[in-house]
Specification:
- The protein is globular, with a radius of gyration of 13 Å.
- The model has no long low-confidence stretch (mean pLDDT 97).
- By secondary structure, the protein is an all-beta fold.
- The protein has no helices and 11 strands.
- Strand 4 and strand 5 (46-51) form a beta hairpin.
Length: 116
């Protein structure tokens, strides 16, 4: 049974930091590309960051470059998103997605709210 479970979301003040985690099970994690997406109220879901299976190659949306860092620990089947210098516009539900060829799995999401 495939599962992706995000954790680490919450309420943080502008300029603060959060670290999201996504624990995977039920599929060969190390072979999959891992992604973080987010969806703000009234907006489409957007790709925030991506990391390839080896962990060497990453991609970031322009809006988070220099502030967010994606990483993965294949031994722990976990992908992380370190978020620094958070802004109110980072407020969204953050989702973890795994994909490989036509396989695609999503987590239920975790809420991140940036507000004073």
């Amino acid at each position: 049974q495939v599962q992706l479970v995000e954790s680490g979301g919450g309420l943080v003040q502008p300029g603060g930091s959060l670290r999201l985690s996504c624990l995977a099970s039920g599929f060969p994690f190390s072979l999959y590309v891992m992604n973080w997406y987010r969806q703000a109220p009234g907006k489409e879901r957007e790709l925030v960051a991506r990391i390839l299976s080896t962990g060497v190659t990453t991609y970031y949306a322009d809006s988070v470059k220099g502030r967010f860092t994606i990483s993965r620990d294949n031994a722990k089947s976990t992908v992380y998103l370190e978020m620094n210098s958070l802004k109110p516009e980072d407020t969204a539900v953050y989702y973890c997605k795994a994909n490989r060829y036509s396989d695609e799995y999503w987590g239920p999401g975790t809420q991140v709210t940036v507000s004073s």
